[in-house]
Automatic annotation (TrEMBL):
Transmembrane in keyword set: no
Organism of derivation: Paracoccus sulfuroxidans
Stretch forming the signal peptide: none
InterPro entries on file: Glyas_Bleomycin-R_OHBP_Dase, Glyas_Fos-R_dOase_dom, VOC_core
Listed PROSITE patterns: VOC (PS51819)
Gene Ontology molecular function, alphabetical: dioxygenase activity; lyase activity
Pfam families: Glyoxalase
Key words, A-Z: Dioxygenase, Lyase, Oxidoreductase
All residue ranges annotated as the VOC domain in the record: 1-126
SUPFAM superfamilies according to UniProt: Glyoxalase/Bleomycin resistance protein/Dihydroxybiphenyl dioxygenase (SSF54593)
Protein's UniProt keywords contain Oxidoreductase: yes
Designated name of the protein: Catechol 2,3-dioxygenase-like lactoylglutathione lyase family enzyme
TM region(s), chain numbering: none
Superkingdom of the source species: Bacteria
Length: 130
């Protein structure tokens, strides 16, 4: 079971703005900030999640080598749609518009957006289409 996941980003401010906008509609917010000084020179980091549980992190460091796929659980199809719209408006690039993906399983409803570094960020609802 995963506890948290982190991505290195090339432009911390741009990525912060993207993730704040894209994840807010899913109820995921910045809940922890760690400065470069706090890490003793090992980068600045933002923890997104819910109170007392930062489970998705972005941070400075070496430039990303290849894209990563991260999927966030959504409460319904409307939340997936809202994520997609917010992420595109925040500078994300389409990588799969909201819709059913029955080849994964019946009721799989997801949307995919590439973040500013090309990582594949998804919102998914596992249930009957609403």
């Amino acid at each position: 079971m995963l506890d948290h996941v982190g991505l290195t980003v090339s432009d911390f401010a741009r990525s912060r703005a993207f993730y704040e906008a894209a994840l807010a509609v899913l109820g995921v917010f910045v809940v922890m900030e760690v400065t470069e000084e706090m890490t003793g020179g090992h980068g600045a980091h933002l923890g997104f999640g819910v109170p007392d549980n930062p489970f998705f992190w972005i941070g400075t460091g070496k430039a990303p080598g290849s894209g990563v796929h991260v999927a966030f659980a959504a409460s319904g199809t409307a939340a997936v749609d809202a994520f997609y719209q917010a992420a595109i408006a925040a500078g994300g690039r389409d990588n799969g518009a909201p819709g059913l993906r029955p080849h994964y399983h019946p009721g799989y409803y997801g949307a995919f957006v590439l973040d500013p570094d090309g990582n594949n960020i998804e919102a998914v609802f596992h249930g009957a289409a609403q």
